[in-house]
Design brief:
By secondary structure, the protein is α+β, with helices and mostly antiparallel strands. Helices cover about 15% and strands about 30% of the residues. It has a five-stranded mixed sheet, with helices on one face.
């Protein structure tokens, strides 16, 4: 695909896109066969994308370049927000996975928590003002007041646990503009 800054990039993986409801399709096909019906119909879907073209995310999306540590929010084909970010540290299993996802949930404020410890606590607690979830595994975009800077190679030394850390004012703007279901493209 062509990135927001006009370069060519390849992206694969993630949870966004078309997904046929196999159980519903099998049931519908069995019914058509047993009742001798001829059908032309749209398949049953568990999940759909914004458009049928390639790429299928349409002209409103978030693009995050994991190499340059930069985010674009494109709305109706126009870049409306840009931001330096800090993504997952490339060590200790904390790197941010590339792929196409979508906004699953928004919360303001929120407390992000790490894995449970043997004493019942958490490895870490991070209160944030704005949380934009893109995976049910706990990855999302949020403010990170503990980061003294964003962008560049900062993530190599002070990367997140996999989330996309953003400056407070930028994630506040994004939170107020973005809708549930908006595609989020993460690429190198």
């Amino acid at each position: 695909f062509i990135t927001a800054d006009g370069k060519s990039a390849t992206v694969s993986g993630g949870t966004y896109g078309w997904q046929i409801d196999q159980a519903a399709e099998v049931a519908a096909i069995k019914e058509a066969i047993t009742s001798h019906m001829e059908q032309v119909r749209e398949p049953f879907y568990l999940q759909t994308a914004a458009v049928r073209e390639n790429p299928d995310w349409g002209d409103t999306f978030v693009e995050i370049n994991l190499t340059t540590q930069y985010l674009y929010y494109v709305q109706d084909g126009q870049i409306v927000l840009e931001s330096d970010v800090v993504t997952g540290a490339p060590w200790g299993g904390r790197s941010t996975a590339s792929g196409v996802y979508d906004v699953l949930q928004k919360s303001s404020p929120a407390v992000l928590r790490g894995p449970r410890t043997p004493d019942g606590g958490y490895e870490w607690d991070a209160p944030v003002s704005f949380w934009i979830r893109i995976t049910w595994g706990g990855i999302g975009m949020h403010d990170a007041n503990w980061q003294p800077r964003f962008g560049g190679d900062w993530y190599l030394y002070n990367g997140s646990h996999g989330c996309i850390n953003m400056p407070w004012s930028n994630v506040q703007q994004l939170y107020n503009m973005i809708e549930l279901g908006t595609p989020v493209i993460l690429h190198y």
